[in-house]
Specification:
alpha/beta, globular, five-stranded mixed sheet, 2 domains, 44% helix
Length: 324
């Protein structure tokens, strides 16, 4: 018994020493940020800025940005899930990669909870509900009343995307019926609402600002629980007749499951410090995003699990589960 106990103590001490050494020696080579979307978008821009800041904080250690596109972000996510769990490969994941994809795909080659460990959440991405000016509504309450008398149409950037799910959430909370019209991108979506081909959409604040200001569309509310810095005069939908309404995207940094806890903790601290800096907070706000003080690692895990459940329910209600 003494021999077994001594062996166990030695093993535990060896594990503790190994983990300590792993954290102390990290990083031992360049860190790669995998972006599952193309270059130039908000996610890509934020990753590059954070990567430069992280490189500075790590004494000049290189941070490489790798855009791994395709498969509705599945290809990039799968690559990181299969990467060595040592903290040198991280995924910058838009919300759908880790939430709606679970319900949308018949066979997803990764499990968002089992194959990844959350590292940092640094922003939320709100949307603004805009309608064509000819629609006789001035508020969310007016819209709901009109939608109960006739079927309206709403555009989105694609089946399963957050703007689509925002429309489904609106339908679910009000009991109204609306026709979903999916597009392949933001530009055509907003263009067709401005032209009156579709009556409304949930658009990114940055893309819709000019159209709102010159009256080509009318803003009824934002999909976040708080106001958006670039649209301070537009109230949250939750404050306009639908308490609790929230339909936002977000960016979550994750590492492969099995990454040593000391390394995850170190990366978590670094990301938190970088994104909490005043200049980063201003940049995030100027991009039409909402800055987030990244929660603890335990809170991040619970957050991800709750988001998977919420959006999975909406995907099933929309009848699009397993459509990919």
């Amino acid at each position: 018994m003494r021999t077994r106990t001594k062996a166990l103590m030695v093993a535990l001490a060896l594990v503790a020493f190994t983990q300590g050494a792993t954290a102390q020696d990290f990083p031992s080579r360049p860190i790669t940020f995998v972006i599952p979307l193309g270059a130039g978008g908000v996610l890509d821009v934020m990753a590059r800025v954070i990567g430069a800041k992280l490189s500075e904080r790590l004494g000049g250690r290189a941070v490489v940005i790798e855009n791994r596109t395709g498969g509705g972000t599945v290809i990039g996510a799968q690559a990181v899930a299969r990467a060595a769990p040592d903290g040198h490969t991280l995924l910058f994941a838009p919300s759908g990669t880790l939430t709606t994809n679970v319900a949308l795909y018949k066979s997803l080659p990764y499990d968002p909870v089992k194959d990844f460990v959350p590292v940092a959440l640094y922003n939320k991405i709100p949307f603004v509900l805009v309608v064509h000016p000819s629609l006789p509504v001035q508020s969310v309450a007016d819209l709901i009343k009109l939608a109960k008398s006739r079927t309206l149409s709403y555009a989105s950037t694609g089946t399963g995307a957050v703007p689509h799910m925002a429309g489904e959430l609106l339908k679910s909370m009000t009991g109204v019926e609306m026709t979903h019209v999916p597009y392949r991108g933001v530009t055509q979506t907003l263009t067709d609402v401005i032209a009156g081909h579709v009556q409304m959409t949930f658009a990114s604040p940055e893309s819709a600002m000019s159209a709102i200001k010159d009256g080509r569309v009318r803003a009824l509310g934002v999909s976040s629980l708080t106001r958006v810095p670039v649209l301070p005069d537009v109230a949250p939908i939750a404050d306009s007749g639908l308490p609790g309404f929230e339909a936002v995207s977000w960016h979550l940094v994750v590492a492969p499951a099995g990454t040593p806890a000391p390394v995850v903790n170190m990366l978590h601290r670094e990301f938190k410090a970088i994104t909490a800096a005043p200049e980063m907070q201003r940049m995030i706000g100027d991009m039409g995003l909402i800055a987030v003080d990244t929660p603890s690692l335990d809170e991040l895990r619970r957050f991800l699990e709750n988001e998977i459940a919420l959006w999975g329910k909406l995907v099933r209600q929309a009848g699009i589960a397993g459509s990919q």
